[in-house]
Specification:
Cathepsin B, Chain A; alpha+beta; single chain; 3-stranded antiparallel beta sheet; about 90 residues
Length: about 90
Amino acid sequence: MNLFWEILKSADSRKFTLFASSLGHGEDENESGLISGHAYSVMSIHEVQGNGELVRLLKLRNPWGRVEWNGIWSDNSDMWTPELRV
């Protein structure tokens, strides 16, 4: 996993176009707001300290924009401290 993360960071720093996708098919939304079989644009890659440990985050964009991630580290998550929101 560390090698994969380093490859992602390297590609991001070189402005490569990156995307992610979810498993499945159809248009089913899960409890966290992801759509099965859907593609997402990777906007940026971040490493932050959360609760005393390193957390790796991808900022994704839903090109259809109808639903939004609502799980841990979502916009309204309690994980975001005022320092991290800057």
